[in-house]
Specification:
- This protein is mainly alpha-helical.
- The chain has one domain.
- Helices cover 73% and strands 0% of the residues.
- Helix 4 crosses helix 11.
- The longest helix has 27 residues.
- It is globular and about 50 Å long.
- It starts with a helix and ends in a 10-residue tail after the last helix.
């Protein structure tokens, strides 16, 4: 099996596993800030127990060490906004917003990796816009803040995806994942400490916890869901996606990731009954967005991976 075909299989396995992330984010009762802090902390601790990870991190130059740390900060901000969207809207809306990633990537990836700009990719990305308009129209007005938070999350995902594409050849996937989880987790921890030292706050229940709850250990049910989120929906797919980026462009892999909303909506309907919260226009918009995934391989031939500098 060719490296490219293996990379596509890895990406599609990642997409299937990521389909559970929005549902788990809805099931976990703690606010987004605490959720992201625990998610990244658990993955970082597990990975830094491996000698291979320590060797990989020590082998990095200072420049690339801090570059991976910077990507970890982007990952943390992406997850904060993603789970904010889940809490402000629902799992289906948050996952559907992730389909806007290719619109941002078709501009960001050429700037970051140096590969040629492809106008056809921008055109294909713009085809998603009518779908987004329908998604917003089919979403209750009180969920609109969640839609825009989800689109911000997609922009941040495009940024860290492009930089991971540029950097991944500098170390192995597990070391890169560990460093990014550690730096992102430290950022969220710093924000939590600053909140704890600030004025007492009741929090909003969706993004920010009450001051006294910032470092509270999650309940038993939340710990089970956090364990599944950390291992099956973070550690495994994140490392696999980084390996796949050695042989795929960030744009191509992002279009495959557009299948995530299909899984997320199916899981949300079965497990959460979210179909009662959304209108027909939402599903029409989601169908347009997902259709772009299937158009891509028909009009683009595979190309060599971008040169990493």
């Amino acid at each position: 099996m060719s490296d490219t075909r293996t990379a596509w299989l890895q990406i599609h396995l990642c997409v299937f596993l990521w389909g559970f992330t929005a549902v788990l984010g809805r099931l976990i009762s703690i606010p987004a800030l605490s959720l992201v802090m625990w998610r990244m902390a658990v993955v970082a601790v597990l990975l830094f127990c491996l000698p291979q990870v320590w060797r990989g991190v020590r082998g990095l130059s200072r420049r690339h060490f801090w570059a991976f740390c910077g990507v970890g900060v982007l990952v943390a901000l992406h997850w904060l906004s993603f789970y904010g969207a889940v809490k402000l809207a629902n799992a289906s809306v948050a996952a559907t917003c992730m389909a806007t990633i290719p619109i941002f990537l078709c501009v960001i990836e050429p700037m970051v990796t140096g590969r040629p700009f492809a106008p056809r990719e921008l055109l294909l990305g713009l085809l998603v816009l009518p779908g987004i308009a329908l998604v917003v129209g089919g979403t209750p007005e009180e969920m609109n803040a969640g839609v825009w938070t989800g689109i911000l999350s997609a922009f941040l995902a495009a940024l860290f995806g492009a930089y991971n594409k540029r950097l991944i050849h500098r170390t192995d996937a597990l070391s890169a994942t560990a460093l990014e989880m550690l730096s992102g987790g430290l950022l969220v921890l710093l924000v939590s400490v600053l909140l704890a030292l600030g004025p007492q706050s009741a929090g909003d229940g969706a993004i920010l916890p009450a001051t006294g709850d910032l470092f509270r250990i999650p309940g038993a049910q939340d710990r089970v869901y956090l364990g599944l989120l950390a291992v099956l929906c973070t550690l495994l797919p994140f490392a696999l996606s980084l390996r796949a980026l050695r042989h795929l462009s960030a744009y191509a892999s992002a279009l495959a990731v557009n299948l995530e909303p299909l899984y997320a909506m199916a899981f949300a309907i079965v497990l959460l009954g979210e179909q009662r919260e959304l209108g027909l226009a939402f599903y029409a918009g989601a169908a347009i967005i997902l259709g772009v995934v299937f158009v891509y391989p028909l009009i683009f031939r595979p190309r060599a991976p971008a040169t990493i500098v």
